[in-house]
Amino acid sequence: MNPTISPLSCCLSYGSGVITYVHDTTELKPHDDNCRNNTFERNTKFGCVGKRVCELRVMFGVMTDLGDFTSELDDDSTGEDTDTTVSESAETRETATATDEPDETDDTFDSYEATPAGSDRGLGVLSAASGLQISEDEDETRLRAYVTANNRSQIRIGSYLLASYPDGERLFCRISGLEYSQEYRADDATEIHARRAMRSAGIDEEDFKLMATLDPVAVLYEDDGELKRRMTDRVPKPETVVRQAERKADIKTGLKMPEDGVFLGHLAVGGQKVRTAAEPPTIDYRLKDDYTAGDPLVFRHTLIAGGTGSGKTHGAKNILRQYLDEDRTYPVESGADRDISPAVVQFDPQDEYAQMHDDGEYDPEFGRRLDAEGVAHGGHDDTTVFVPKVGSATYSASHHRAEQVEFTIPFGMVHDNPWLIAGSGLNDNQYSALVTVLLPRFRSQYGDEGTYEQFRSFLDDPALREELDESGKVHEATFDAVARRARGFDAVFDADARPITERIHEFVRPGGLTVVPTYHIAESRHAETIVLALSSLLVDEKLSNDPTYERIKETPLIVGMDEAHNFLTDADTVQAQRVIGKFTEAAKQGRKERLGLFLITQDPQDIADPVFKQINTTIVLNLGDEDAISAVNIPSNLESKVPYMEKGQMVVYSPDNSEPVELIGLPHCLTRHGRD
Length: 676
Ligand SMILES: Nc1ncnc2c1ncn2[C@@H]1O[C@H](COP(=O)(O)OP(=O)(O)O)[C@@H](O)[C@H]1O
Ligand SMILES: [Mg+2]
Fold this sequence. Notes:
Blueprint: E1 10-14, E2 19-23, H1 33-36, H2 68-71, H3 79-99, E3 124-127, E4 144-147, E5 160-164, E6 170-182, H4 191-199, E7 208-223, E8 226-230, E9 241-244, H5 248-254, E10 262-269, E11 272-273, E12 284-287, E13 302-305, H6 312-323, E14 330-331, E15 339-340, E16 343-348, H7 364-373, E17 383-388, E18 403-407, H8 413-416, H9 428-446, H10 452-459, H11 462-470, H12 476-485, H13 504-507, E19 513-517, H14 524-543, H15 550-554, E20 557-561, H16 574-593, E21 595-601, H17 609-612, E22 617-620, H18 626-632, H19 636-639, E23 649-653, E24 661-664
Parallel strand pairs: 13-21, 13-22, 16-19, 16-20, 17-18, 17-19, 20-21
Antiparallel strand pairs: 1-2, 3-4, 3-9, 4-7, 5-6, 5-9, 6-7, 7-8, 10-11, 10-12, 10-24, 14-15, 22-23, 23-24
Helix pairs in contact: 9-12, 14-16
The structure holds adenosine-5'-diphosphate (ADP) and magnesium ion (MG).
């Protein structure tokens, strides 16, 4: 499309959409009032006429409204003119900037005042220009706001906004997209545009629209003086002012964040804490921990996923410390009057959690702020390290001051969990021989107390091998395979320490933290067997209708597992299947039995799906690996943040607790963490 105008007194150049009006100085003639009257408001930009260049940027749509000015224009403008004047324009502009100081005697124009009377509230207004629609179908929802020029630099994706309805209800929404578009149709991919931009210090915001796409989260309304939320079931009016949500109550209600519960961190957007006018200005995020609406979420299981060094252990300690707060108790059973503190048993491959016995490193002022916010902190006295005695391995405890006790796994525990010695190598047939023939036979000969050493010599007996083969119970080859597999656990079972089964009351203590370090164990297969033996014991007792250890059954229990992917993998082996089956069942029964799994991993993709599906609260710290990111299965708006998050930044996806949110964890570990 060609513009139909060309100035009489000068030559006109245009790119598609921008008209540069270049005066010939000799014929310079000031614009008259018509040029500056309403017709040109918003659409006209006057350069300094006193200089050699005067620019008019005119939107095509209003050209026919040029009025008096149009009549002065003739129609002779051609493409060739354009080219020459483009360069002239550029040159003259250059000289103008270089040499011309504003000159008192120059003709000047009054500056155009675009600001309407009154003072602005909010960030902008909802626009109906490309539809304003709230729909049950998310894809059809269209909610866009025009952001005014002076608000643009501060606006961020993820920020929370409010738009009021005429009756006082408010729409709480989140910015999900930001888009600049042109106010005036113009091709800015042109030489002149680019070069002009390269010489200027910035854009004129008013030449552009900044549109914010909003994701409606909830309608906020008052009910009997109480602020409540409901689904977004109405559309706000066009031109409704949108404001940043700044009141704590609005944000908490809008995001469905519980007022009480276990502290996880402070609400954030784009790595910045959300601030309000309240004191403290930050917004605490808590995980529901009572029975008022559903079950405490800890018994519906938690996963902390993050890359190495992302802050998993720091974060996990801070959260576990909350569960160990002396004020935290759960009813013994639903509706019971008697409350009991939870026990935490933490499996610890890197030997980091025993330090929870000792105080964190932060100044008293930080401690006072924690107290004021109701965050438990400081070393937890009732911390015991249960050191597995394995062969000649020695455990070094120079980095903490927690009490240590040694224990061993009695071979008798294998009767309930034969897969412990199946490792990864037995096929179904072999496993069946172990479970239905060999172990029962051993038990009948040696009783429940039969040791691993005795089992070894039992399997070394050629007469037994022959007898079982001849009776058709166990084929020789099968017998050999089982015997081979079952070897190599000398270090694990019946070592020179008290069996764990005799220390259950020390192992599971209401209000106590038990840490099981495995770093000192050289062979990973041994460490794995110990962790699985203990965790299975806990889980079995919790699920049993006829528990051997009432203590385990009745104590609310949090089983923490760092590097959980090593223990709960999905593999095609007898052992993996049994473990996964057991933990899946445990996870399902967790709410009822007050058993919470607290899994920590850098490889969430390696945790078996059936267990994963039972996890209600997922906390994700920085993760770089794509497979890992997609495995944690969080909403896409959170997912995209994950690779960019700094230490301590996290996203929390806990659908029964709140809307998905971003948080910043505490900058200090509430107990000791790290070695000098
Ligand atoms: N929120 C945080 N603020 C400050 N430092 C942190 C934060 N989270 C972790 N760190 C520090 O970063 C380091 C690595 O954290 P850590 O929890 O041990 O990582 P991971 O267990 O994920 O490998 C530690 O020194 C820890 O104290
Ligand atoms: Mg760690």
